[in-house]
Amino acid sequence: MSQYESLSLFIDGKMTVGDSGATSDVVNPSNDTVLARLPHARKPELDKALAAAEKGFQAWRRTNSFERAKVLRKAADLMRARVDDIARVLTLEQGKPFIESRIEILTGADITDWYADEGRRAYGRIIPARSDGVRNMVIMEPVGPVAGFSPWNFPVTQAVRKIAAALAAGCSIIVKCPEETPGSPIGMIRCFHDAGLPDGVLNLVYGVPAEISEYLIPSPIIRKVSFTGSVPVGKHLAALAAQHMKRTTMELGGHAPVLVFDDVEVDAVAKMMVATKIRNAGQVCVSPTRFFLQDKIYDKFVATFTSGMKATKVGDGFEPTTRMGPLANPRRVNAMQALIQDAEEKGAKVETGGQRIGNQGNFFEPTVLTGVSENARIMNEEPFGPVAVMLRFKDTDEALERANKLPYGLASYAFTKDSRTATRVADALDSGMVTINHFGLALPEVPFGGIKDSGYGHEGGTEGLAVYLQAKFVSQMG
Ligand code: NAD
Fold first, then answer.
1. How far apart are CA 163 and CA 144, in angstroms?
2. Three-state secondary structure along 122-137?
């Protein structure tokens, strides 16, 4: 299809299909058609990417932060100028509504701009010395070549968060972007290249994920690993990185609780949460999933939320009226069906949805479940799809205890007009991020990251730059 990207790897400043001959199909999740074949990197291509990243790092670390900022800002401007083209590719391969794709590209530009500036503020410090004539200095240096692994739910922003922060810190990077949605990352990476980034500083590979991570992470060239994806894969890669003493950032799954207290304007909160739940068809690690609703507002919230989910127009991402696109791959449809069936077998009621739509593409109905047993799989496993579970609570202690019960700890939501309740839940919710009375997560300037099984390290904000810097202590006399 002419609108789709020409697929390739990007190694040492050049688009290349490599020599392996191995490929995989990229499929449009709206109609199951094959969009293109993606060339895979094997060891020879990975060796070239590693050598390029080493060479690129030596050049880029010596480029001063003001010059680096100019390149990053230009890349951000190119993303804005090319937003429609890259967004079209993103919707074709991932399915999300075109408007969401545009927002994703523009957010990628904002992230790049923000890190362009933040890289110029990688300050060290001077520590008062014990002897006359001695200066104790802490200098922040780039950690070195990075291996980044980004997923298919936000093919552009998940990769840009790693790329922009690493480049701003003075690191080079090899990213393995998602094989199922490879075109939009290529479009974004062209922006960095066309902005004048030196060859080798940024490299893009595709292939068999396990083969690539098992080759790149142990390489002595790679000094830092950043992964966004599922908890089991994150644990596997963190263990591999530990064996080779590599620094890691792990952005893993979540199972976000939403606490709605009985003093809120129910309709407004329910409508806001429908929009948040259906965004990217629920394939978002901070997607609200377990709704804890206080007794008095339970019925009204369930009714308003259910009618909002039911009214959601599901369809092809290019249809202007579409509010929710297909799921990104057939695995998610199977996962939704299995989780809903299990919940029903354990006594749940499907208030709306619950079914695949049609037999072409991966369309699934926005789904609301009530009466879900605590031991249903969906209460413990991240659904990563358009399913919400309605639960009732009596008091704050009970809501907090149930919200904090899972091994996940990424994002939590709370809605209340009482500032004491708001402060209390902000303190007591066991998660890396809490957003109260609105959706305030994932901006370029704020830290994004989890605790417990949801991972460690941050992307976004000054914390997101810090993970690509290492402190060097220099004590100098005279
Ligand atoms: P998966 O566990 O097979 O893969 C998750 C991601 O990890 C993919 O991008 C995949 O390419 C990558 N991956 C898998 N094995 C790898 C390896 N050995 N080395 C390097 N990368 C590897 O699952 P999936 O079916 O693609 O996605 C489903 C689950 O993944 C979801 O249920 C969700 O929990 C999680 N997920 C989370 C995020 C996030 O934003 N945190 C994004 C996408 C998927």
1. 13
2. CCCEEECCCCCCEEEE
**Pick from 11, 5, 4, 6: nearest CA to 41:** 11
Domains of the chain plus CATH, in order, are 9-252+454-477 (3.40.605.10), 256-443 (3.40.309.10)
340 within 8 A of 381, measured Cβ to Cβ: no
Strands 247-251 and 224-228: parallel
Q: In this structure, are residues 371 and 391 in contact, taking their beta carbons and an 8 Å threshold?
A: no
Q: How many other C-beta atoms lie within 10 A of the C-beta of residue 120?
A: 14
Q: What is the C-alpha separation between 54 and 245, in angstroms, rounded?
A: 18
Q: Is the pLDDT of residue 2 over 90?
A: no
Which of 169, 215, 147, 184 lies closest to 4, judged by CA?
Answer: 184
pLDDT in tens, 143-154: 999 999 999 999
Please give the number of the atom of ligand 1 that sits closest to the Cα of 232. Answer: 2
| pLDDT tens digits, one per residue of 262-296 | 999 999 999 999 999 999 999 999 999 999 999 99
The response to whether residue 148 sits with its C-beta less than 6 Å from ligand 1 reads no
For the chain, what is the mean pLDDT?
98
User: Mean pLDDT, to the nearest integer, of 69-80?
Assistant: 98
User: Which residues does residue 475 pair with via DSSP β-bridges, in sequence order?
Assistant: 136
Closest to 71 measured CA to CA, from 204, 172, 210, 144: 172
Question: CA 209, CA 179: separation in Å to the nearest integer?
Answer: 8
Is the distance from the beta carbon of residue 10 to the nearest atom of ligand 1 less than 6 Å?
no
Largest interatomic CA distance in the chain: 79
What is the number of the ligand 1 atom nearest to the C-alpha of 383?
A: 32
Query: Is the separation of the CB atoms in 424 and 399 below 8 Å?
Result: no
pLDDT of res. 478: 84
Given ligand 1 and candidates 46, 225, 230, which is best to mutate, with the most ligand atoms within 8 Å of its CB?
230
Write the DSSP string, 119-176: GGG---EEE--SSTTEEEEEEEEE---EEEE--SSSTTHHHHHHHHHHHHHT--EEEE
